[in-house]
Design brief:
Blueprint (H helix, E strand, L loop, with lengths): L1 H6 L2 H14 L1
């Protein structure tokens, strides 16, 4: 899973954080 975050650009990581924030 972490490998995907590393491969993806930082912008995608930010989007992931937003999704997590919405779920919580």
């Amino acid at each position: 899973m972490w490998n995907i975050l590393i491969e993806r650009p930082i912008t995608d990581v930010v989007l992931t954080e937003i999704l997590i924030g919405s779920l919580t």
